[in-house]
Design brief:
The complex is a heterotrimer of chains A (673), B (313) and C (161). The radius of gyration of chain A is 26 Å and the shape is globular. The longest helix of chain A has 36 residues. Chain A contains 25 helices and eight strands. Chain A has a domain of 283 residues. In chain A, strands 3-4-5 form a three-stranded antiparallel β-sheet. The longest helix of chain C is centred in the last third of the chain and has 12 residues. Chain C is globular, with a radius of gyration of 17 Å. Chain C has a single domain, classed as Rossmann fold (3-Layer(aba) Sandwich), CATH 3.40.50. Chain C has six helices and seven strands; from the N terminus they run αβαβββαβαβαβα. Helix content of chain C is 31%, strand content 17%. The chains are: A mainly alpha (673), B mainly alpha (313), C alpha/beta (161). The interface between A and B is large, with 90 and 87 residues. Strand 6 of chain A pairs parallel with strand 1 of chain B, so a sheet runs across the interface.
Chain lengths: 673, 313, 161
């Protein structure tokens, strides 16, 4: 019976892709969306079954993939990753129905999107190396097709797709190496074979495998310094695709790390988790900093994804460190925090990207410096973005706060330990959490305030109007879920605990107790999110009533009078006199000048007649990614130099090429014998 | 029922105490400037008058502009009700977490910054940009300071932190708590917009941080903001003094203990306010771009507190 | 400064502050302000003589803050607009805008002879007119420049203290 779920997911996805490619324009998106929904529903069904019954779903066949066959198993750990992916996919595909008219209804996009969703849903099911790699590659290729949707009109989309293609395949190569090493030593390529053999592996092999997997999966998750593709690809991809990439695909990077670290290798020494924490700290700080100083809306969201993935890596690293140094309670809390952060991130980042896509559709631009006044013109999108922004800034009563609180509690109770490396890394982790929290708040106040509030800064923003109903419902559903999960996190916490327990490294500790408050069992820490929200709401109600009563006594003039804003009495007040996103982030940019090293260009041209009179001033500032500029570009330049040096090898002579082939064959034969 | 009453009385005390503290601090500054100054209850009169005045909103603002003062006051009311101000057993005490309190107050600041951006003027943007920058740099110090105190008390529950000081007076004099509370004081000065971070009585828009955010508010909205900001200062100072000098706080239920607790809270906060006002008279406002140094100093204090907390256990 | 000196300064007002009479009881202020008046000052073109007197009125000797008056930065926070000087041609619109930016109930106080009837600047090429030619004036304080005591008395009539 349970096999039906898996077959349904795959079959519905494939049929959706075929219909998406074959049907005419008017019906292809609708059919693809409907069948994708079937696929997602089946995935949810499978995940819920696994989590509630604690039995894994297994299916294997020798068909479909030659030589290796397909093996699929869904255990609670995979299930907890499937759930947010299917929820975000359902919302994004519903949104796609309304977005399709704006350039996402081509045959390639309509067949790539369902395949993308299906491959993401099936990756947590994969239980053999071949299945995993095939699904991973399918996910990468279909998302690449989606990023390339607009490439004929925009150079930036082409360049983004190039970077994405190269880096995702470099990551896939690292993952391939790691998994192949494991299966070579285990003698079989199913995950159960590998798990059984894991304890016989030497420390060096385990270490190499873990580092390779961390690099490959970390790159997919957007960990710094392997993140450079993320701001480009997520910003250039169309609305629903970027929501899926940031809200669902990056989770699979985390899934990979947990899979290899805990399930396949069965846990490891302290230095593994120190490395994970270091990557996490770097990602969190770097991502938050760039988000706070970015003025492109989707780039800001993409860097924020990197930041949140860093936080999840910090939580995972902390969990591993606590587990390796003998503190199972705090290890469990940290693991639960990591998974909860992951679920929350999917929901709010999905909502944010869908809202950003709506803004792009309505105004034609992603540049915050040209937006503004959208809350009045696009009220639903504005509220969705506001809810998403408050969630990502970890403010109560939304869901981001719960995950952050759990992580803080885990770090707090785990800090007093005798292991020096743990103490130092956890202290750094707490400071990082705090600084990134502050920077994220600044980034999202900027994005919401400059993008949606105030007066519109350009004609496009003035002419904006609300988007189609399906787009609003898709984005709104995710925003509503942010609030629901913030009020009642107990909806997902038992499932998360079961998933954490199934990693085998943490005991099933109970973090939940009833529907009203969260208790940390074994430690002193209580949080009552719904009571908090109720308190805030009732206080707000009381204040509003007091404000109303104060007005009842005076009715000579209207209660609230819309007037010209106060600008020191100057004659002309234009919308361009407001702060822009660039000016908003400028103080932070100045504080972190040494890290970001923005380039500034000031061009002053004088009047021909006299040098004392200035005709024109042009100011250009850019803060492109410093890691890309300092490391990747010189590396690419070096590779290009090397390639040009090696040109003499290709002189066009067929005899030369035959000689190369002969020499290579001789070398291989000698090596094999 | 008594819990509800305790909550209401605490909130009312903070709500009335806020403008009174503001008036007291202005009075002390005036006296040190050589003049008599307005009476201590003047801000209460100001707020009463403001509630009777017309409310204006900028033509192109959205609902966020009007919602910001409400949310600001609501956040402080919500945390004042459940915090150990007059008693170490406030209502809903076991879910009153220090981290939760800090993030709820941060919600208030964020919504105020959004309201300022909604005005569509350059001043609003300037105020929120500077305010968010300072907030971003304050958060590390604040969270690490809370962490330091929470490590030594083995919990981040606020009433528990207050009770531990009463039960073991040696904890109050411990380096952890002193360092953490010094850092907390720096953060309070920064977040409430007092000197040396921000001059609350400046008229020069280019030197404003917090004041620039509220230039556009009038009437009841402005009244709510004044009350909300002063309540926040009273609340934070109340937490600070209850963690530093907890004697006088009600430890057992009973009307008499509670009244003594309220009175001692008022006295301690008044003393703290007077000391801050005297400090302000002798300090100049720091340049905006020198503030990261000050806040980094606060962070270092907090970090030292955390290190001593870990070492001591 | 020693601690004792500090405490003494805070607790006892200095003797520089002038003695004041009783609160005005027979005056009927144009609007009821409950003892609190926030004033926004606008210089519409004065010679700054009146500004010096306003500064004096709020300084330690005359100390208008005792009576609930405070200078504020934004007209949105203000109840009364204190205008000094004749209104120059450039300041006509800003003055009107500042007045309109104040929420009701609001007042305009014109300070000095120049504000009342252009004073010595009557007929000058840069002057548009007196303050009452541009906005409706509710209270006038005469003098060139007015004595700080007159300023404080006018403000006390408004706050009723």
């Amino acid at each position: 019976m349970n096999d039906v779920y898996v077959v349904a997911i795959g079959l519905a996805g494939v049929i959706a892709a075929i219909l998406g490619g074959a049907l005419p324009v008017s019906s292809r998106v609708g059919a693809a969306v409907a069948l994708t929904w079937v696929s997602c529903a089946a995935a949810l069904g499978a995940a819920v079954t696994v989590l509630s019954s604690d039995h894994a779903i297994t299916i294997s066949t020798t068909a479909i993939l030659p030589l290796t066959g397909v093996t699929m198993t869904l255990d609670p750990l995979g299930a907890i990753f499937v759930i947010p992916i299917s929820i975000v996919a359902m919302a994004s595909t519903l949104y796609w129905l309304g977005y399709a008219g704006h350039g996402l209804s081509s045959r390639s996009a309509s067949s790539a999107m369902p395949l993308f969703v299906t491959s993401m849903l099936l990756v947590p099911f994969a239980a053999s190396v071949a299945t995993f790699l095939v699904l991973w590659e399918m996910m990468a290729l279909t998302s690449l097709v989606l990023v390339l949707t607009d490439q004929s009109r925009r150079e930036a989309a082409r360049s983004a797709a190039q970077w994405y293609a190269v880096m995702t395949h470099a990551g896939a190569a690292a993952i391939l190496l790691a998994l192949v090493l494991l299966s070579a030593h285990a003698g079989g390529q199913t995950f159960s074979d590998i798990e059984a053999h894991a304890r016989h592996l030497s420390g060096a092999v385990r270490g190499t495998v873990f580092v390779l997997a961390l690099l490959g999966f970390g790159s997919k998750a957007g960990a710094v310094p392997l993140h450079v593709w993320l701001p480009k690809a997520h910003a250039e991809a169309p609305g629903p695709a970027s929501a899926l990439m940031s809200g669902a695909m990056v989770n699979l990077g985390i899934y990979g790390i947990v899979l290899v670290g805990y399930r396949l290798l069965g846990g490891g020494p302290v230095w593994w988790w120190l490395l994970v924490s270091v990557l996490g700290v770097m990602s969190a700080l770097y991502g938050a900093l760039y988000a706070a100083t970015s003025s492109d809306l989707k780039r800001l969201l993409a860097y924020s994804t990197s930041d949140n993935m860093g936080l999840i890596l910090i939580a995972l690293g902390a969990s591993g460190l606590f587990g390796a140094s003998g503190h199972p309670t705090t290890a469990a809390i940290a693991m639960v925090a990591a998974l909860l952060l992951m679920v929350n991130h999917s929901v709010f980042k999905g909502a944010l990207f869908l809202a950003a896509g709506a803004v792009q559709v309505a105004t034609g631009t992603r540049d915050l410096d040209r937006l503004g006044g959208l809350m009045r013109r696009m009220p639903v999108t504005g509220i969705v973005f506001l809810v998403g922004a408050l969630s990502v800034a970890v403010l109560p009563p939304f869901n981001g706060f719960i995950g952050e609180w759990l992580l803080l509690q885990g770090l707090l109770h785990g800090l007093p330990t005798s292991n020096t490396s743990v103490v130092i890394s956890i202290s750094v982790a707490v400071a990082t959490l705090a600084l990134t929290g502050g920077l994220t708040v600044a980034a999202f106040v900027k994005a919401t305030g400059i993008g949606f509030l105030g007066r519109p800064r350009s004609d496009e923003a003035t002419a904006a109007h609300e988007v189609a109903i399906t787009m609003r419902v898709g984005a709104g559903a995710l925003a509503a879920l942010c609030l629901v999960l913030g009020l009642v996190p107990m909806l997902v916490l038992p499932a998360i605990e079961r998933a954490a327990a199934s990693t085998g490294q943490v005991h099933a500790t109970s973090v939940t107790n009833g529907w009203v408050s969260l208790h940390l069992l074994g430690l002193r820490g209580v949080l009552a999110p719904s009571l908090l929200a109720a308190g805030l709401a009732s206080a707000a109600l009381v204040v509003i009533v007091i404000r109303r009563i104060a007005h009842r006594r005076r009715n000579a003039w209207p209660a609230v009078n819309p007037v010209e804003p106060w600008g020191s009495g100057r004659k002309l007040q234009t919308a361009r006199m407001q702060y822009t996103a660039t000016s908003f982030g400028e103080p932070l940019l100045r504080v972190f000048d040494d890290v970001i090293r923005p380039s500034r260009d000031l061009d002053v041209s004088h009047l021909v007649e006299s040098r004392y009179y200035i005709e024109r001033i042009a100011y250009r500032t850019s803060n492109d990614d410093v890691i890309e500029r300092q490391f990747y570009r010189p590396f690419i330049a070096g590779v290009r130099w090397w390639g040009q040096r090696a040109r003499w090898l290709q002189n066009g002579s067929v005899r030369r090429y035959l000689a190369y082939g002969f020499v290579a064959l001789v070398i291989v034969l000698v090596a094999v014998t | 029922m008594t819990q509800v009453l305790v909550a209401v009385v605490q909130v009312f005390a903070v709500a009335v105490g806020g403008p009174l503290l503001l008036g007291l601090m202005r009075k002390v500054r005036s006296r040190l400037e050589g003049r008599d100054g307005a009476p201590i209850h003047q801000p209460l009169l100001d707020v009463r008058k403001l509630f009777a005045k017309q409310r204006m909103r900028p033509r192109e603002s959205s609902w966020v502009f009007g919602a910001a003062p409400v949310v600001l006051v609501a956040t402080v009311v919500a945390v004042a009700a459940v915090s150990p101000l007059a008693t170490t057993h406030p209502p809903l005490g076991q879910s009153s977490d220090f981290f939760a309190v800090v993030f709820v107050l941060l919600l208030g600041s964020v919504v105020l910054a959004l309201g300022a951006l909604d005005t569509g003027t350059a001043f609003g943007g300037m105020g929120s940009s500077r305010s968010m920058t300072i907030g971003a740099l304050c958060e590390p110090a604040l969270l690490v300071a809370i962490l330091a105190m929470a490590i030594s008390a083995r919990t981040s529950n606020l009433p528990a932190l207050a009770r531990v000081g009463l039960a073991h007076p040696a904890v109050i004099a411990s380096p952890t708590r002193i360092l953490a509370l010094s850092s907390f004081l720096v953060v309070i000065l920064a977040e409430s917009g007092r000197l040396p971070v921000d001059n609350p009585s400046t008229h020069l828009e280019l030197t404003m941080i917090h004041e620039a955010m509220v230039l556009e508010y009038s009437g009841a909205d402005l009244g709510l903001i004044i009350v909300g900001e002063s309540m926040r200062l009273v609340f934070l100072l109340g937490l600070l003094v209850n963690l530093l000098v907890p004697w006088g706080v009600a430890e057992r239920p009973g009307v008499l203990f509670f009244c003594v607790g309220l009175f001692s809270l008022g006295a301690k906060v008044a003393v703290a306010g007077v000391m801050i006002a005297i400090f302000e008279v002798f300090t100049a406002k720091m340049r905006l771009f020198r503030l990261p140094e000050l806040l980094a100093g606060g962070f270092v204090l907090a970090l030292l507190g955390a290190v001593t907390a870990v070492v001591a256990r | 400064m020693t601690f004792r000196l500090l405490l003494q300064t805070v607790l006892h007002p200095t003797s520089v502050v002038k003695d004041v009479g009783e609160a005005p009881t027979s005056q009927h202020p144009p609007v009821s302000l409950h003892g609190s008046l926030q004033v926004r000052h606008v210089d519409a073109g004065s010679c700054n003589g009146c500004e010096l007197e306003v500064t004096s009125a709020f300084a330690p000797v005359y100390d208008a803050e005792r009576f609930g008056v405070r200078l504020v930065a934004s007209p949105r926070h203000a109840d009364a607009l204190l205008v000094t000087g004749p209104v120059t041609k450039n300041m006509v619109d800003p003055l009107r805008k500042t007045m309109q930016a104040m929420p009701e109930p609001r007042l305009v106080i014109s300070l000095g002879d120049c504000a009342h009837d252009c004073g010595v600047f009557k007929g000058a090429y840069g002057v548009e007119g007196s303050v009452s030619d541009v906005v409706k004036v509710d209270v006038h304080i005469a003098g060139c420049p007015p004595h700080p005591e007159a300023i404080v008395e006018a403000l006390r009539n408004l706050t009723g203290r």
